[in-house]
Amino acid sequence: MSELWDQARAGDIRSLAKAITAVEAASGLGILAAAYPDAGSAHIIGVTGAPGAGKSTLVDRLITVARAADKRVAVIAVDPSSPFTGGAILGDRVRMQDHIDDPDVYIRSLANRGHLGGISAATPKAAALVAAAGFDPVIIETVGVGQAEVGITERADTTIVVVNPGWGDSVQASKAGLLEIGDVFVVNKADRPGVDETVRDLRQMLELGRALQWTPPIVTAVATEGSGVDEVWAAIEAHKLHLHDSGRIDERRAVRAAAELHDAVEVSVRRSVESRLAVESVLDEVVSRRLDPWTAASRLVDLDG
Amino acid sequence: MSELWDQARAGDIRSLAKAITAVEAASGLGILAAAYPDAGSAHIIGVTGAPGAGKSTLVDRLITVARAADKRVAVIAVDPSSPFTGGAILGDRVRMQDHIDDPDVYIRSLANRGHLGGISAATPKAAALVAAAGFDPVIIETVGVGQAEVGITERADTTIVVVNPGWGDSVQASKAGLLEIGDVFVVNKADRPGVDETVRDLRQMLELGRALQWTPPIVTAVATEGSGVDEVWAAIEAHKLHLHDSGRIDERRAVRAAAELHDAVEVSVRRSVESRLAVESVLDEVVSRRLDPWTAASRLVDLDG
255-274 in A: which are within 8 Å (CB) of B? Predict the structure, then answer.
């Protein structure tokens, strides 16, 4: 395990992939312990928005811009497990072909098992590994299922919210709680009608919503044609600079560490409880009313443990 | 504690109220353990639907009908903690006045702390206590916040969905997932236009949606005037008979016990996680990257415990 991680850190992509598989399967605790101290410096970019907003295409274009700036880029894409959005999986695979010969681009899809609001439970682990392996920035691309996306803000340094032009899209973003979490807004597919109205709506809602040190820029783009992508990248860089200049980066990262610890503890406790429930015949006792659920729960979850 | 419960079971309403307060505050585990074996026979009626649909008025009328049938009725009403629907709290208090001198009616409001989808975490505990104290039926009236209401179906033997006439209300019910959970549908405020269309819409959607042993009746009512309420009561009784004749009541109650155990474990897990995180200085170590979150979690949660 330790050897695997040494090779990954030395730049061997195949070892990195194996290491991520190991931590995804919850067997690579030693790797995580070895990687975590080095995982703190990469800039983490979260990309969220409704399905079909064009997140994958935008991310693809951002990789190209980042490579032109001589960055080593990693993308953690959360694959939807739902057949409804199955097309995105194919899209990811096609997309990966574009960069397959570039050792400074690493793209990894993780299965979304519905944890952590649209983000796989393995996402922070994979992000830590690619960051510790020297990739910077790390882009986390979420499934895009509305309210569930809000969790991304705790995982990322800079959160990009992608919307499309047209009446109602900005309102939908507002309803889904995306206005509160965006550091940069991208109105993608800006060759469609309604761009000005959507930008104006977003601006008004953002002004109403908050008094901030950072005013989220609203960038229009047509990611399929590559237009506006340089501006998105510039906005990300400006936000990164703001975080470091203001010292807020430390705050964000402390919040992220706390969230990761909380989630990790929650997963561990749940696993512990599930194994206890499986072993013991508690459910039978509760169904037959020989034991009440609350006493059963207090026995299963040892509060002094 | 045990004495308090003995008095509650013997019919002392004041002791019952104190016992519910104790279990609501999570200090009455002994009471729950004593009450739970006797809590299995009462018929649990869940009443759900959008805010303003007339749930409280309908429940008030159902109490009167049930009293005429010589039933001892308990109502567990989940009080919204949101100021948005604060009017309902006042309504509950006014309503309680109607039955204040009747020892065979017990109405209890519980604060909704946002757990369990519109149902207070204390709801199943309070329901168990009133059932064990000899009240039957027990009516659980939910806050009515759309999708969140779906949880009621696991708490109730018979779920009543209240809608109003008018274009879109049945569609809203459908979107909120209420069509799947209703055992009885009540089109309340049936003195308003659009009743026939709403009934027709509901019937069509119900026919499309499922092939069932039980076809949910659709009852029209004007609860404020008391019209249709006898029919609602008859529909409840018919559904109860169906559950018992078909043996499905045992299934429903096994599902309910499992859901209650699951929720109780979840609450205990959360409390356990919080207390573990509070005691140890693990968070500092994680924030400073001296320790990774996953190793920290595995240490905090003894998987062999």
Answer: 257-258, 260-273
pTM to 2 decimal places: 0.66
- Into how many domains does chain B fold? 3
Q: Which amino acid is at A70?
A: D
Identify the domain containing residue A210 by its residue range. 39-246
Based on the domain organization, do A93 and A216 belong to the same domain? yes
> Which residues 7-46 of chain B have a CB within 8 Å of chain A?
29, 32-33, 35-37, 39-40
Question: In 3-state terms, what secondary structure has residue B49?
Answer: strand
Centroid of chain to Cα B130: 13
**Do B17 and B130 lie in a common domain?**
no
Question: Is B251 within the bounds of a domain?
Answer: no
Distance from CA of A30 to the nearest CA of B (A): 8
Q: Are residues A228 and A93 in the same domain?
A: yes
Q: What is the pLDDT at residue A90?
A: 47
Structure-model confidence comparison of residues B112 and B16, the more confident one: B16
Instruction: Please name the residue ranges forming H helices in chain B.
Output: 2-9, 13-24, 29-35, 55-68, 87-98, 123-132, 152-155, 169-175, 178-181, 195-209, 229-246, 248-279, 282-287, 293-300
The two tokens of residue B91 are: 């309504």
ipTM: 0.76
The answer to whether A260 touches B286, Cβ cutoff 8 Å, is: yes
